[in-house]
Design brief:
Helix content: 25-40%
Radius of gyration: 17 Å
Structural class: alpha+beta
Number of strands: 11
Shape: globular
CATH topology: Phosphatase 2c, domain 1
Number of domains: 1
Distance between the termini: 14 Å
CATH architecture: 4-Layer Sandwich
């Protein structure tokens, strides 16, 4: 398959350091894309997110297609391994107490995508002009929306909108949500930290993704827009355009 990719991270307008990290690796078989948003302060969040993208990325390099028999076990196992390693380091080092990270990992190959999700970084798909959020946040406000207590609009502006209920590294074990679906030529995927999605409405994201520009320029436009709306957090975005797929691949 053929993918065009743009990726960048930005410190934003408020934070003094960047606790986001990302991973990008693509070849003719598949692409691997990971965004991790660390927490913990005093550089601990940066350590956690770097560990997550490195461990998960290295393990996912063994996956040639989302239809591999071990694709899902490798994906979930890599995130659980990252969780164990970050948790052990958090316990062992006094200055790493409370550290953790989100992780959204996307694998794209001909005819399919696979996502492993922990936290509130997100993966979106723009297809045929329609933007769909493929992941579901592990957050306090999402739980309130699910319970019917808050509307999605109220959740966006809630004072606890950045409180997550599941992350990589805070406990000795973590559950990974897995999402999958088909891939078509022309699909645009976005993997982003909440420094982007917390600043922009979905309609704004859709318009910027639909612009007549390459993935790199789309990433720049998304980050510029998030900074223009305050840039309250670190901002990371990966945009993946599906240019061609191998019709004979992946079954």
């Amino acid at each position: 398959m053929e993918l065009r990719i743009g990726a960048r991270t930005d410190v934003g307008r408020v934070r003094s350091g960047n606790e986001d990290n990302f991973f990008v690796e693509a070849d003719a078989r598949r692409g691997i894309f990971i965004v991790a948003d660390g927490m913990g302060g005093h550089a601990a969040g940066e350590v956690a997110s770097e560990m997550a993208v490195r461990i998960v990325g290295e393990r996912l390099l063994t996956v040639a297609s989302v239809h591999d028999a071990d694709a899902v076990p490798v994906l979930t196992g890599s995130l659980q391994e990252a969780n164990r390693e970050i948790y052990r380091r958090m316990l062992a080092e006094q200055d790493k107490q409370g550290m953790g990270t989100t992780a959204s990992a996307l694998v794209v190959s001909s005819h399919g995508f696979l996502i492993g999700q922990i936290g509130d970084s997100r993966v979106y798909l723009l297809r045929g002009g329609t933007l769909t959020q493929l992941t579901k946040d592990h957050s306090y406000v999402q739980e309130q929306v699910d319970a019917g207590v808050l509307t999605p609009e109220q959740a966006r502006h809630h004072p606890y909108s950045n409180v997550i209920t599941r992350c990589v590294g805070s406990t000795d074990a973590v559950e990974v949500d897995v999402f999958s679906g088909s891939v078509q030529v022309g699909d645009l995927f976005l993997v982003a930290s909440d420094g982007l999605t917390g600043m922009l409405e979905d309609g704004q994201i859709a318009r910027l993704l639909a612009a007549n520009a390459g993935p790199g320029r789309k990433v720049d436009a998304l980050i510029d827009a998030a900074n223009g709306h305050g840039g309250l957090d670190n901002i990371t975005a990966i945009v993946i355009e599906v240019v061609a797929i191998d019709e004979g691949a992946d079954g």
